[in-house]
Amino acid sequence: MYRSAAKRLLPYSYFSVKHCLQTSRLPITTPRLRFRFLSSTTSDSPFPNGFNTNTNTTTSSSSTQTDEFHNPSDSGASRRTPPRANYEEEQARVLAASLLHVARLGWTEAAMIAGARDVGVSPSIVGAFSQKEGALVEYFMDECLKKLIDAIDSGELQLQDLVPSERIAKLVRYRLELQAPYISKWPQALSIQAQPSNFTTSFKQRAMLVDEFWHAVSDEGNGVDWYLKRTVLGGIYSTTEIYMLTDNSPDFNDTWVFLNERVRDAFDLKKTFQEVKYFAEAVGAGVGGSFQGFMKKGC
Amino acid sequence: MAFRVVGRRLLRSKLLPMFTPASTLHSHATSFGFKEVNEEEKSQLVGNVFTKVASNYDIMNDLMSGGLHRLWKDRLVSKLSPFPGMKHLDVAGGTGDVAFRILETINSVNRRAIEDTLEDDLQRETQIYVCDINPNMLDVGKKRAQQRGLGDQGSLIWVEGDAEKLNFEDDSMDGYTIAFGIRNVTHIEKVLAEAYRILKKGGRFLCLELSHVEAPVFKQLYDYYSFSVIPVVGELVAGDRDSYQYLVESVRRFPPQEVFASMIADAGFQKVEYENLVGGVVAIHSGVKF
């Protein structure tokens, strides 16, 4: 985890942040850079116990890099900077512990209170989280994205042997499997994400997720095509996510069948579009030809 | 109004030490409303004020704020998000307004919905300490607790004590609230340091206090209301003009939102935030200890 975050951060830490600030509202023709911004911002926060690292050197170098970047702007406030990081750290620790209680208590304050007790922090801290339950769901989404990126980077998914449609199906499946343990409480998480106060964050997180899917398929489209592809994939991901909620088949087999069909549909649709385009060109040429012929006759 | 404050500030910072060198050797001058008094005197004067107003405290709060103080306190408690098993200290909360709200939130159906036997045990561990320097205010609170049927639950503990020297152990509380109280203390820094000391890691500090209004027209209206209406109402209803004159003056002497926020941060708290209510008539400051 640290490895990938640091790798992404090191060569681009300055450029990517600057770039993102400037172009966040423009059509993103260089989505890779935008994504690097995400990893550089989240790389400071700690990870749940599952993520042990043995490459501490890269981590420290990445953090010094960030410090260098920040120093000129807030050297005056440097006295207050370390505590703030500390708070973020504690919040992440509490949220990581809270996830263990979600299956029983749901995405609730009660789960976060239990989580805080587990890590020896006063449950009072839950009141300081800006979005309450929203913070927990947001944290979970971020963690899942990190796991997905790690899986892609480590080659664990063996994507290189697959054709694009299979790659997408595999990636979406891997991501959805990460939330399988929470499936009974996932409708609640969806409703939390849909609340107006959380919606911007959750929408952004989903957009990043879809971005990451397409990167892994090595798709570097641009313009309208870029948006279209992401919208379609976003649709596939969301419908499959909903389908999964009511799927009682062992290991969610029905869900994966459903997913494969939707991906196939999408790729068929792409073909259909091309066919329509060719057909339209042919018709255009035909009509144009006969029109020209008509005009000639008229003369 | 602004000139008066500036004038007073100059007086305090420059002139006063020249005229009264002897007194500054032993104690520092502090403010009691717009008056300059010795530190020892201030606590006594504040004590007198609250002894006088204790009996009419609630009715005056309702009259002066138009009932809004109830909503402000509700907001404070909702920001605190109390939980079963909480150990909480409410300072300067003699009449129990904030403490009752916290207890009721914890007891509410909302929490009960979670069918968990553990919760019930925790419920019994809930302890809310109400600390006030003034025994008269505490008596009002105790009486109201009896009326509300909260008196014999054992969750409310009434303590007479000084916010600058709390009688609690380090790292013993989950939450600390002070509503309309910190303005009356002699050393705000000491109170903040004490709050920091007694809170557990992750514990939260919340302060509800009358603060400064900046919006142009509203500010003039508010000043007129404060200086012309409140003392008169105080005289008519409570028969005590001076105490309410002190009240509005002390609000003007209290540090503005940003300054107070930085004082909280200096005491060691993190994630220091504040929220203005009614355009800054009151502000809720909060911080987390780590």
Molecular structure report:
Chain A: It is found in: Mitochondrion. Chain A: Belongs to the COQ9 family. The complex is a heterodimer of chains A (299) and B (290). Chain A is mainly alpha-helical and 299 residues long. Chain A contains eleven helices and no strands. Chain B has 290 residues and is α/β, with parallel strands linked by helices. In chain B, the strands form two sheets. Chain B has a seven-stranded mixed sheet with strand order 5-4-3-6-7-9-8, sandwiched between helices. Chain B has a two-stranded antiparallel ribbon with strand order 1-2. In chain B, β6 (173-179), α10 (188-198) and β7 form a beta-alpha-beta unit. In chain B, α5 crosses α6 (97-107) and α11 runs antiparallel to α12. The longest helix of chain B has 23 residues, at 216-238.
What secondary-structure arrangement, pairings included, does this model have?
The complex is a heterodimer of chains A (299) and B (290).
Chain A: H1 2-23, H2 31-42, H3 56-74, H4 81-105, H5 109-118, H6 133-153, H7 164-178, H8 186-194, H9 196-216, H10 223-245, H11 253-298
Chain B: H1 2-19, H2 21-26, E1 29-32, E2 35-38, H3 39-53, H4 57-65, H5 68-80, E3 87-91, H6 97-107, H7 109-112, H8 117-125, E4 127-132, H9 135-148, E5 156-160, E6 173-179, H10 188-198, E7 199-210, H11 216-238, H12 241-253, H13 257-266, E8 270-277, E9 282-288
Parallel strand pairs in B: 3-4, 3-6, 4-5, 6-7
Antiparallel strand pairs in B: 1-2, 7-9, 8-9
Can I get a quick summary?
Chain A: Residues 52-64 have a biased composition (Low complexity). Chain A is mostly helical and 299 residues long. Chain A has helices at residues 2-23, 31-42, 56-74, 81-105, 109-118, 133-153, 164-178, 186-194, 196-216, 223-245, 253-298.
